[in-house]
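Suppose a colleague, Dr. K., hands you the sequence of a protein chain of 310 amino acids and asks what its three-dimensional shape might be. Before reaching for any lab equipment, you can write down a predicted structure in token form. Begin with the sequence itself:
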Amino acid sequence: MFKKHDSFFVSPETFLQMKDAYLQIPTEEIGIANVYRSSDGVAHAISNSCAHRGMALHDEPIGQARLACRYHGWRYCNRGHVKPNRVVGRNVEIALPKVELSKYGGFVANEKIDKAELDAVVKLINCKVDINPIHFECMPHNSNWKWLVENVLEAYHLDFVHRKSFVEQGFEMTSDIVNERIGDSSTMFLPKKRFGRGFYKHGYVFPNLFLSNTSDFITFCSIVMSLSIDRTNLYWFLYPGKKMGSLPNEMQNDLALQAINFTRKVLAEDREMVEAQQRGSGAENQSRNLTKIEPRIEWFYESLQKKGIQ
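The predicted structure, expressed as tokens, is then:
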């Protein structure tokens, strides 16, 4: 699990700007916390345990809902302060424990991240997440977070795992793939080989943010959130690409639905593989590799070792 001193991404800022939007993260200080954006624009990770009797305030890891307890009806504002009720009255100072988060380049993070690397990756991928997402979900994984990162950083598995998804859309593993390292982060460019022109640009911002641009029609954003040594949440968001807005509304709606279903399918295909890795190798990394690993994965582990992240 990421530690207090580690820098990691929490959420796109635009997601938290949506009404009552939240997602959950683990913290060393206050355990599981719900991340909300307050009216003054500050993002806080607020304890998920009700101040009254300790009831979990949210069971779902992501959604749009008020911060409230279903046991006795205690409600809280997006800064964690209790709202007036029959037990505490109106003049209250009760507030849930919270941790203030930071904002960098359109994202919320637990502390200062490398904005230069983030900006460079966003520019190369040529994507924006500065409007409300068209969809968001969380996909839990029974595996260590590093297996998820490894899986996304290499394209070698494309022809085998994604035969019924990426390959059917005209993307194949070829020598045309271009990888570029940007400090601890990296990018990949994959041209479409069949069914017309197109591309898939993928960016990784260390340690847990992924961005991709599919032919300028759909932008994908995901954040890997380590819960424990063998449990990880994958939060993912879809945004309209710059070409999507030029389509008629009916076509935009159809494309959005296709993108949602396609993303669910691809992520489910990947989850099966990374959970099998967890069963085969546990939480270890690289110990079972008998051949030289792909460059982006090698860069990833170099950065982990340099920063002392477990």
